[in-house]
Amino acid sequence: RIINSDTKTLNSVAENFTLIIIDVDDLKGINDIYGHKVGDKVIEIVGQGIKKCIRKDDVGLRYGGDEFIILLFNQDKKAAYKVIERIRREIIELAAEHCMSIQISAGVAYETSFKNMEYLFNMADKDLYIEKKLKNQKKIETDKKKIENIRNELNKIVIRENKKIINEEVMEISKKLDELI
């Protein structure tokens, strides 16, 4: 759908606007591991998920390699977060049909006028990166706990086993895990 960039026309269509920026998590990793054909399918699935979850009067566009922009008319931030959750669920369902797992991050900004679109975009972009940062912190904490569990299991083996060679090997691995933690 093409929108007239004249702000008077846009402002007469809607009283307020909510901008959503969606970014596919780790598309580069997907391309590197599975190839660009799979990466293209991921982009297609995300686009389909967005299309199915927004109203006909709203606008969804692919903005860059793995980013999409959604413009909701006469919707506040609360409604935008509901749209994002519907999109996430739809992407999960569509991805499952292809034996894939696709995650997205999203940022939201709300404005009552199109006059300051650059500000609106920057606010949504900042919101997106806050979500990405939180996801990365959670992943780091989860990975750290997994490493600690492996180290603890190795230490239990060392205590149970009396063979010096096994103990030395396990202790080396345990030290390396400590360094990672």
Task: Describe the protein's architecture and organization.
With 181 residues, the protein is of the alpha+beta class. The protein has helices at residues 7-13, 27-34, 36-53, 77-96, 117-160, 164-180; strands spanning 17-24, 59-62, 67-73, 104-111. It starts with 6 loop residues before the first helix and ends with a helix.
Layout of secondary structure:
Blueprint: H1 7-13, E1 17-24, H2 27-34, H3 36-53, E2 59-62, E3 67-73, H4 77-96, E4 104-111, H5 117-160, H6 164-180
Antiparallel strand pairs: 1-3, 1-4, 2-3
Helix pairs in contact: 2-3, 3-4, 5-6
Helix % is 55-70%
Cα distance, first to last residue? 50 Å
Physical arrangement of strands within the biggest beta sheet = 2-3-1-4
How confident overall, as mean pLDDT?
Answer: 84
Q: Shape from CA axes? A: elongated
Please provide the count of β strands.
4
Task: Give the helix tally.
Answer: 6
Low-confidence stretches: 1-9
Largest beta-sheet characterization: 4 strands, antiparallel
Give the strand content: 5-15%
- Mind telling me the C-alpha Rg? 23 Å
Q: What is the N-to-C order of secondary-structure elements (H for helix, E for strand)?
A: HEHHEEHEHH
Class from helix and strand fractions? alpha+beta
